[in-house]
Amino acid sequence: MERRILDQKLDLLRDKILLLGGATEAALNRAMQSLVERDSPLAQKVLDEDEIIDQMELEIDRMSIEILALQQPAAHDLRFVISVAKITPILERIADHASNIARAALIINTEPQLKNYIEFPMMAQTAAEMLRTALDAFTSEDSRTSREVIERDREIDAAYKRVFNELLEMMIEDPSATTGAAHLLFVAKHLERIGDYVTDICELNVYLTEAAFIKHSK
Amino acid sequence: MESKISVKNLDFFYGSNQALYDISLDIPEREVIAFIGPSGCGKSTFLRTLNRMNDTIASASVKGSVMMDGKNIYASGTDVVALRRRVGMVFQKSNPFPKSIFENVAYGIRINGIHSNKADLEERVERALKNAALWEEVKDRLNSSAFGLSGGQQQRLCIARALAVQPEVILMDEPASALDPIATQKIEELVVELKRDYTIVIVTHNMQQAARVSDRTAFFMLGKLVEFNPTQKMFTNPDEKLTEDYITGRFG
Amino acid sequence: MSETATTFERKRRGINLLMTSLTAVCAVFTIAVLVAILGYIGVRGISSLSIEFLTDTPKPVGEGGGIGNSILGSAIMTLLAAFIGLPVGIAAGVYLAEFGKNWFGNTVRFVADTLIGVPSIIIGIFVYTLVVLPMGRQSGFAGGLALAIIMIPIVARTTEEMIGLVPHSMREGALALGAPQWRVTWNIVLPAAASGIATGAMLAIARVTGETAPLLFTALNSRFYNYYLDQPMSSLTVQIFNYATGPFEVEHAMAWAATLLLVTLILVINILVRFFTRKRF
After folding, report:
1. CATH number of the structural domain C53-279
2. Does the predicted model carry a pTM greater than 0.90?
3. Is B252 inside any structural domain?
4. How far apart, in whole angstroms, are the C-alpha atoms of residue B109 and residue B123?
5. Which of A33, B87, C66, C82 could bridge B169 with an S-S bond, Cβ 3.0-4.6 Å?
6. Chain segment B4-63, per-residue pLDDT in tens
7. C-alpha distances out from residue C224 to B230, C68, C219, C231, C251, Å
8. Using CB atoms, which residue from B56, B84, B93 is nearest to C177?
9. Which residues does chain C have within 8 Å of residue B158's beta carbon, measured at their own beta carbons?
10. How does pLDDT run across A205-215, given as a tens digit for each residue?
11. Could you tell me the CATH number of the domain that includes residue B101?
């Protein structure tokens, strides 16, 4: 059967957004790794590669506009292009947060190692997991999973509060750890924001698959 | 919802060939309804059942009912001539009469005896031409032949002609299919403008046009009504797989 | 390969040239015959043409005389034929076109087509039996009637065809405005087909102007200016027939002159038809 020109373009667009998703995921994971393992060169790598992600965003924007202008997609096709166009800047912003985490890592890594903290890596793990699941759900247009991920945002918010308290305690107990803990606090805030962005991605997937707007509907 | 036209279980036959199957659909007042579907799907045939234009075909027959303001237009004793005055029609190919621009618009007024005197007639012609957004272009040559107008102008003249008899419903059968994009845009703007005073049903094979001008869209296929929904829904999230395949061009 | 192609090509071109030449020769032959006839009539007829010839009545051989009364008779009978034949023919054509898609219409159509093919002398005999015998004499009225009967089927069929050419969309446009059928026919279809119908009418008139046979039985001839329809009436064609069959050379010369006039008249009508056809839309 003959393939529509539009189908080829949509496939290309799907490939690009998956690449961008993969790159963003990698950036976040590496940033966290550079922090946890005190690996400053890795943090630097995250910062260097942010440029690539910015370029990908521009390319997807161009493709989306071109498809809208020239192919006039309708129904599911239209929802797909719109979702991609809206998810792209979200991913780019997540990548920016990853860069900020990497930047924080460069500073924290020059500070003395903080004593064991538990909540923080768990929160980071949850955020990374949510992002991965959200992108998988988008790829397979699985809106049920997306709805589950949205529920998990509460875990992140709760984790943020615990991390906040944990780090605060740390600063009170040991004033020499203040600089490192303060930067970690920023990292936690970044993770919390990433959780919100992942929620947005999931909402867009629900729009893509069910044509339902669930944002602001709670 | 207050319906201007309410169609119930309509079957249509050309001789022994059934062209429409069990169509039921409600057309609300002062909205633009678009009929879309592949060639031969019955959308034009259905449009022509609404002013009984199919009566001119000897072998045509109809089952079911078309209620307009609560009265069945297929009931015996219906005055078809009066019906067609209430339900105007604009055709795919512009079909001005071999008369002057003025006389084209005046024709319907004259035959229906709507005007009271010459001044009234002139005023009605002017108003119809203005409503069809043609007045400025033709006011200096009302007495020249209608055939001297461009295709787009001729089509707007035909719309003016239909408006002049003050119909309640206007049926448009692919009114812009033979026009260039600029003329098409003018017709589309006009359709949206006319919605304030008229109920408009427009058949189009241009899906973007249906999307641009209509409030509701009906999708026909093989003589059946597949889906009838608000246009916004039809083009972003249709209920039927068939509709989705058609409007996204995945047909065949 | 190229060898055969060339042979084939040459053969094809040869046949093409042969056929084109053949048809050209036939075309030239047709035109030549026509030009020869017209030229011959012109040469033979022009010498006898004069004002007196066009205005005088026939006189005994040797005393001159003309065809004035024949011109008048032809004009009267053609007008009468048009007066009867055109309304009936056009009305019948309108009926056939607008309401004739049934067995009755088909019958009328078939009869009209048959009537067009009937030799005109039979029409003459028919009118002779129907009008001349009861009246007891030949008359201009009988002549005009015979010509009208010839015109009716021609006019009816051309009218039907011309109305058929009016686009269906134009009728629908009027119907959709709430026009009753008769108004559509009267205000829209007939005006749109008018020039075509006029063309058909003119051609029918040209056709009957040249008729001789039906008039021989019906209008006979007359040596005088006659304005009365109940009297025998002269006509160009019958007068030509008389002069041509006469024994004297002077009569033959007058026949040629009258023929020239008749041919010119028919030519003028045909040119007018051309003019009308060109003006259409």
Report:
1. 1.10.3720.10
2. no
3. no
4. 11
5. B87
6. 999 999 999 999 999 999 999 999 999 999 999 998 899 999 999 999 998 888 889 999
7. 87, 9, 13, 11, 17
8. B84
9. 173
10. 999 999 888 88
11. 3.40.50.300
